[in-house]
Amino acid sequence: WVAAAVAACLCIGAFLCFFVIVPWLQQREEQRTSVTQPADQTSAAQLMEEAQAAQDAGDWEGALELYQATVEADPQMVDAYIEASGILLRMQDQEAAMNVLDMGIQANPDSAELHATTAGVALLLQKLDVAEKEVGWMTLEMSESPTTHAFSGILTLLQGGTCAEATPALEKALRSAPEHVWARYGAALCSAQEGNAEAALVDLEFVISHAKTPTILRVRAEELYSKLSDEPPPDKEEKPSDDAILEEFDALLRLASDIEDDNLRQQFEKSVDEARKAWKDGDKEHSIELVEQTDAWVQENKDVLGDALARVLTFRLNRIVRLAG
Q1: pTM, two decimal places
Q2: Among 45, 133, 306, 318, which residue has the least CB neighbours within 10 Å?
């Protein structure tokens, strides 16, 4: 039994197997053979509580052992896999962390939380094959989730896509969850790709300071923040084409359909259409003035428009200003 269990745990990673899991399995085997009647097993819930207490106390090795005991008692304790992977990431054992998550998915193939956690970790570790697979699962099984949209946008950027290609997915995430930390991180990547360090730093500050930001995401956000704040924005030798900016205006006009109030929708469409026409006619300074006025109008009517839609409209309007640079 011990040999079979040791063979199975090899997929978790060298550290977890030989320094945590194997000793635990050996101890369990000794307990099993030393008594004629098996003692009552500690409940998975109690083991989970003990693991979290050990983790909070900084006893990472002890916590890993207890998380392993938890999933041995109940393989459906999804949080145990996620917490163990988080510890391994802090210990710089990235492969072991990914393997623990994979073990969790094998035991819980329908767990949206495990698939989403695996996708997020894979994105931040640049394991794009794994990320693509998990984002694909999320797209099929949780297509309306803002996390799915955020991950899709980030994946597009990491695979070499442009900000324009990633923005629709990020917009969907921000529309339903304006404070979604992954979507804000994606927006920061977008701004950084365009050379707008100031806009990227605003979103990164939000991600870093948010209470619900996962540790590994906060670390990556801090790394990018440090890089952007230490280095000046790159010079823009070439301006975006007029067609690219006109596409942004067209995207705003499409978003107008989400404004439920007929009067407000007509006002917005008129403002955007005037700004678009001014840009197309070559009066770019006036066009940007109109865009900035429209943004102020969005803020004034935020209560009626709703925070989510206002956030997306502002994101697009500010993007036009940045592109016009």
Answers
A1: 0.68
A2: 45
